[in-house]
Amino acid sequence: MKQIKKIGLWCILLFACIQISGCGDSQTSWKSGDHEISSELNYEKSMDLDYATEFAVDYYENGFTLISISDGSRFLLNTEGEQVPEDLENGITVLNAPVSDIYLVASAAMDMFCSIGALDHICLSGLPEEKWEIPEAKAAMESGQIVYAGKYNAPDYELICSKECGLAIESTMIGHSPEVKENLESFGIPVLVDHSSYESDPLGRTEWVKLYGVLTGNEDAAVRAFEEQKQYVQELSDVETTGKTVAFFYVTTAGTVSVRKSNDYVPKMIDIAGGEYVFRNLKGEDNAASSVNMQMEEFYAQAKDADYLVYNSTIDGNLASIDDLLAKNSLFADFKAVQNGNVWCIRKNLYQDTMDTGSIIHDFHEMLNSEDTDELTYMYKLK
């Protein structure tokens, strides 16, 4: 019995040491190390990142560039056609750069490719033409430059292989269909999972354009595109706080309410615009997902007195009137924002327009401060 207690004590101590050292924190340990991935590769420098925390880029001599993602995956870009070291660390996928013939499933990345003139690096899409709200993407699919190859959980493997796809860029939704990632890799197609949606700062999400600049050989253009948005947002960040509260949400088909976590980039946009996100310290905020589902009763308790309701139509579709909102649940009639006529609906896909962060924040600011604004670029008022 004493021996069992002693073993149990050692287990507790070991667990405590792991927690203290941070070894159990996948969000902080994935990019640590001394940069030595081969005895033949000499580390030179790392990419300067202002806001992004979900990826890192390290540069080595002879044109080798290492991309590290927060899920632990690593990709070595061979930009000069050099011989790849034989003693390269296990688990690193080698890509000949610039990467082309990409199967793009992560819709948030399309706007980034367009902003740096790299649309021609994509040949396959995870969205059909009618689902794209980015004009360049729709035009490329209409012309046949980009072909629909199936959604994330049902790709057309035969088509993808026939196009000699050089890389599949997936969203974190692929975690729901891990067998697809395994299948693509078994066909020799590398898979990079875009974690930009996990960024807590809106500019962190936008800064992923630098990663795609590296992949496609458009790094300078990517830096310029990011700096433009950075400057726009910094100008907006000087606005005064209004003290007005905002609930950003949509009603699921099951009748629950999906809201963004308080540490997500959308609430941060609201904060920068001068508002205050109404939800704080939500249950489940410690997991990796960007949103939380709550029962209507809980949503009612926390958002009933919010000054503004903003309906996220990206998932559920546009609402035409406040009556459409009431049809989803009659309890909305009791909400302060409904009674005061401060209910708005997102008109465009915020997740696709990743390189328009400043304009989105501007619209939130106008909603909070202008009495006469009924319609903006990204949202409109329900009546």
From TrEMBL:
| PROSITE patterns the UniProt entry points to | FE_B12_PBP (PS50983), PROKAR_LIPOPROTEIN (PS51257)
Q: Which domain of life is it from?
A: Bacteria
Q: Which Pfam families match?
A: Peripla_BP_2 (PF01497)
Q: Could you confirm whether the keyword Chaperone appears in this record?
A: no
Region forming the signal peptide:
1-21
Q: Which residue intervals define the domain Fe/B12 periplasmic-binding in the entry?
A: 101-375
Q: Does the keyword Signal apply?
A: yes
**Keywords for the protein's UniProt record, in alphabetical order:** Signal
Family classification: Belongs to the bacterial solute-binding protein 8 family.
- What name appears for this protein in its UniProt entry? Fe/B12 periplasmic-binding domain-containing protein
From which source organism is this entry?
Roseburia inulinivorans
